């Protein structure tokens, strides 16, 4: 049990306790409120999306969004858009690398991956290109990156201070937070207007992103669609860029594993080149590597749930209504849960379906995308983006780093390294 300020919680980290908590979440699971975002929505009279909503309003929006965002058939539509951005990114890097006589390039990967994730997410969500993968990036795209960064950094500073107190103590930070969100909302408004005009002129002849699909169905109001698209945008940058960089970091420290992943990608590519939606299902080792990355480096440290009924945890009765925190970072690094937890070993996830069925607890060792009807709605978008990015990078470049030490991590709304190692990318002939 823990109490921080006015927040009282019960904390767990073992899979068997996580299972009990998640089985007791009820038909309308509730998350802890992200108050800085909610304050902005209330002040500006904007609707909240499913990340911020609870109760029946959340369920109504969630059901209507699942088909186009989370279902396999919905993913089949946006995966080709993500694949296009991956190809553009590789081409963009290839040009930079071939300028050097040694056909290699040593650089800070973070800004490049950040541009990629935002370009990919915005294209899949809105059907819009930001122009971030050019030798001279679009200034509006760079301004959008600044707004996302500003929103995330201000959120982390305002999140755990009571609103009334923080608005007195951190008024400048609140201004920064509101300015960032206002710019992001302006971008969404422009996209809605553009899509609406195109639909009026041409109807909906071909797929052009998730927002256009939701608008064509008209099951949600435009304000609800905008609110949910913005939350997906805000949650799609750091949550994918950090795992992709840490995966490359671990592979740069383990060249044999990197070569094995490259071999898998090249073999699959040979007969699935024109079908990226099928390709991502045929890369088990790469999928396992991403799982292993998220075990060691979970972007969200904690999964929150309010108990819907009294629940026994570690022989203690925890009453209904209690906020329980499942500590994913502690779970992922616990020797009680994972043998040799300090080792980066994707093979630990390559077990048969029969073995998984015989070990139900194993299903609750991997909760980075949540569980049940309140699991992350952007899960398929994030997984497809990470798989395709790593697939394209590994089949085109050898990735190395001189940094052999473990990363020092810090929490700023999401888990991040305190500093990023330099990478060397070399062209594969």
TrEMBL record:
Pfam families assigned to the protein according to its UniProt record, in alphabetical order: p450 (PF00067)
InterPro entries: CYP11_CYP27_families (IPR050479), Cyt_P450 (IPR001128), Cyt_P450_CS (IPR017972), Cyt_P450_E_grp-I (IPR002401), Cyt_P450_sf (IPR036396)
Cofactor annotation: heme
GO molecular function: corticosterone 18-monooxygenase activity; heme binding; iron ion binding; steroid 11-beta-monooxygenase activity
PROSITE patterns: CYTOCHROME_P450
Catalytic activity from the UniProt record: a steroid + 2 reduced [adrenodoxin] + O2 + 2 H(+) = an 11beta-hydroxysteroid + 2 oxidized [adrenodoxin] + H2O; 21-hydroxyprogesterone + 2 reduced [adrenodoxin] + O2 + 2 H(+) = corticosterone + 2 oxidized [adrenodoxin] + H2O
Residues involved in heme binding: 376
Enzyme class: oxidoreductase
Main location group: mitochondrion
Keyword Iron: yes
E.C. no: 1.14.15.4
Compartment(s): Mitochondrion membrane
GO BP terms in the entry: aldosterone biosynthetic process; cellular response to peptide hormone stimulus; cholesterol metabolic process; cortisol metabolic process; glucocorticoid biosynthetic process
Taxonomy, superkingdom: Eukaryota
Keywords: Heme, Iron, Membrane, Metal-binding, Mitochondrion, Monooxygenase, Oxidoreductase, Steroidogenesis, Transit peptide
GO-annotated cellular components: mitochondrial inner membrane
Protein family membership: Belongs to the cytochrome P450 family.
This protein's name: steroid 11beta-monooxygenase
Organism of provenance: Monodelphis domestica
């Amino acid at each position: 049990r823990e109490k921080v300020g006015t927040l009282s919680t019960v904390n767990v980290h073992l899979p068997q306790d996580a299972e009990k908590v998640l089985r007791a979440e009820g038909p309308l699971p509730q998350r802890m409120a992200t108050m800085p975002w909610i304050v902005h929505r209330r002040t500006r009279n904007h609707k909240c999306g499913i990340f911020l909503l609870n109760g029946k309003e959340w369920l109504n929006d969630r059901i209507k969004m699942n088909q186009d965002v989370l279902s396999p058939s919905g993913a089949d539509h946006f995966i080709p858009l993500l694949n296009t951005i991956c190809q553009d990114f590789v081409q963009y890097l290839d040009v930079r690398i071939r300028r050097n006589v040694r056909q290699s390039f040593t650089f800070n990967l973070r800004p490049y991956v950040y541009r990629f994730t935002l370009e990919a997410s915005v294209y899949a969500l809105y059907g819009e290109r930001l122009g971030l993968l050019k030798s001279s990036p679009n200034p509006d795209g760079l301004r959008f990156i600044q707004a996302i960064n500003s929103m995330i950094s201000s959120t982390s500073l305002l999140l755990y201070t009571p609103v009334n107190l923080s608005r007195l103590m951190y008024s400048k930070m609140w201004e920064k937070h509101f300015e960032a969100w206002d710019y992001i909302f302006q971008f969404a408004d422009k996209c809605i207007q553009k899509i609406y005009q195109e639909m009026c002129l041409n109807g909906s002849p071909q797929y052009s992103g998730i927002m256009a699909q939701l608008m064509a169905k008209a099951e949600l109001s435009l304000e609800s669609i905008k609110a949910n698209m913005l939350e997906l945008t805000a949650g799609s940058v750091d949550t994918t860029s950090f795992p992709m960089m840490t995966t490359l970091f671990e592979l740069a420290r383990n060249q044999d594993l990197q070569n094995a992943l490259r071999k898998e990608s090249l073999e699959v590519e040979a007969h699935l080149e024109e079908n990226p939606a099928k390709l991502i299902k045929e890369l088990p080792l790469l999928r396992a590597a991403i799982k292993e990355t998220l075990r060691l480096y979970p972007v969200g440290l904690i999964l929150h749930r309010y108990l819907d009924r009294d629940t026994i945890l570690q022989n203690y009765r925890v009453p209904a209504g209690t906020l329980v925190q499942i500590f994913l970072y502690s779970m992922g690094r616990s020797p009680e849960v994972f043998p040799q937890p300090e080792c980066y070993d994707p093979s630990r996830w390559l077990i048969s379906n029969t073995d998984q069925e015989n070990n139900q607890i194993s299903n609750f060792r991997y909760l980075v995308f949540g569980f049940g009807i309140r699991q992350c709605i952007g899960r398929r978008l994030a997984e497809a983006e990470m798989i395709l990015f790593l697939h394209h990078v590994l089949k085109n470049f050898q990735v190395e780093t001189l940094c052999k030490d473990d990363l020092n991590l810090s929490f700023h709304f999401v888990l991040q390294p305190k500093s990023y190692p330099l990478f060397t990318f070399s062209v594969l002939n």
